[in-house]
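> tool_call: predict_assembly(chains=two)
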Amino acid sequence: MISAGIDVGATFTKLVLLGEDRLLASQVVRTTGRVTEELPGLLEALCGEAGVDRSVLAYVGATGTGGTQVVGADFYEDELTCVGAAVGYFAPDAELALQLGGQSIAAVRVNGEGEVISFSRNDKCAAGTGRFLEMMSQRLHQPLAQLDALAAQATAPQDVSSQCVVFAESEAISHINSGVPVPDIVAGICASIGRIVASQGRRARDARRFTVTGGVACFESVVRVVRQRLALDFVPFPENPQLAAALGAALLEGDDGGQA
Amino acid sequence: MYFAGIDVGSLTAEAILLDGSRVVASATRAARANPLESAREVLGEVCRARGIAPGEVRHTISTGYGREAICAEGLAEENLSEISCHGYGAWCLVPRVRTIIDIGGQDAKAIVVDADGGLDRFAMNDKCAAGTGHFLEHMGRTLEVELGELGRLAQSARRPVHMTSRCTIFVETEVLHFLQRGHCRADIAAGVADALAERVAALARRVHPSRELAMTGGVAKNVAVRREVERRLGLPLVDLRFDPQLVGAYGAARLAAQRGGNP
C-alpha cells in the first residue's frame, strides 16, 4: 500500500509518499498564497519521482495550519496527532516530541503506539519559533538553509537577552553594527531558541526520552542547546524531522475519526 | 532661574527648559545610537532657543535610556526613572490625574501617582513588543503609512478588521493577508490600533486604574489607539493639553526645579 501525506505548514509545505511504511519520496516547498493550487502538480511530480501512478495511492492525508484547504485529500488530521503517529512509528522510544514549527512550538507527550497523551503549545508568540530564524535570515541576507552552517562557525556566540523576536531583532542589528561576526550572532539566536524550546519541554514532567521534529529540528545548533538544557535522553528522529507531520498524515489512514 | 529635563528614549530624545516652572523651550529629535550625543543635542537646542549657555541651567535631571551615563558625563545633576518623571509630569499638568499610561518605543508602563504626584505603584511591559511603540512602527512600515498618519487613517475606517493575534510578528502577517485580500488601509489601521489598545488596557488593569487617567509617550498621539483604550477600559482619557511625547522631559524638568531650589 502506498499513501501520501501533505503538511501545509506556516512556512513550508511538505509532501511525502509512504510505501510499506517506508519513505519513498518527499518534497519541501515554501508555503505561498497559491500553494493549494500547486499541490496537485507537486503530488503528481512526487509520484513520478517514486515511479508510481497517482491512482495507486490508497489515500492522501492532509495536516498543518493550511491543511484543511488541500483539495483532493481524503482526510484532515491535526498536526500534533500526526507528529505523534510519526514519532510512534519512527522513534517509538520517545515519550516526548518537541515539534518546532515555523510559527509555533509544541511539547507532545506520546505513548509507544504514537497516541498523543497530552500536549502544550505556544502559538501566541513568535519567540522560539522558526519565524525567529526567518527574520535573521532576511536581516543577515543569508539563506535560511545556511544559518545552521554559519552558527557552527561561531567562536564566541553572542548572547541575545530578549525573548521577543522584535526586540531580539533590534539587538541583533546593533550587534551587526558594532561588528560582531555574523556566525556569533546566528549562534546566539539559535541558543536563544534552544532555551525557549527546552522550557516548553520541561512542562512535560513525566517523560524520560524525547525527540525533536519540525523544520527547526534540522538546526543542529538549536537541538544541541535543547539537549544540554533538557535533562532527558535524546532519541533522534531517523527521517528528516521536518517531514514528521506529513509522515504522520501518511501513516494515519484516517481511520480514527479523521475521515473528511 | 532655569531648570531642564532630558528624556532619551529608544526612538526619540526630548528636552524641556523651564524658567521657574514655566516652559520656555522644548526640543524633540530622533535618538542617536549614543544617548550622550542625543542628550547634548536636545539640551543644546533648548538653550540656544532661549539664548542662554548650558552653564546657566541651575539643575538638570536626565531620564530614560542612558540616563545614568548622561548624568556621569555631567550633562545632568541627577537622574530619575521614566516612571517617576512621566507620573510627575502628567500630575503637574493636570493634578487630578492619578493613573498614567506611558507607551514608549520599547516598553509600556501603567503608573499610579499619589495626591502629591509621587509614585504609588506601577506595572511595566518591556518583554514583549506588542503594546509598545515598536508595534505601531512595524505596522506603519508594513502598511506603508507614516507613523503620525496611522491614527487619523484609522479614524476614517468604515469596516475595521479584527486581528486574532497579539504578537507583533503574527499581526504583521495578518496585516499582509488583509492587504492581499483587498481590505483598505484605513480598516487595517483601525484593527492595528485596537490590537495595540487591547495590550495597553491589559497592562493598565494590572494597576487598577482610577477614573482620572492620562496617556503619555509617542503612541498617545494616535487618536485611534486613545479611543480604543478608552473603550476597552470604560474610562475617559484626560486631555493633558501638552505634547504627550514631552511629558517625561517635562516631569524631569519640574522635578529638577523642585529639587534644585526653585523658590
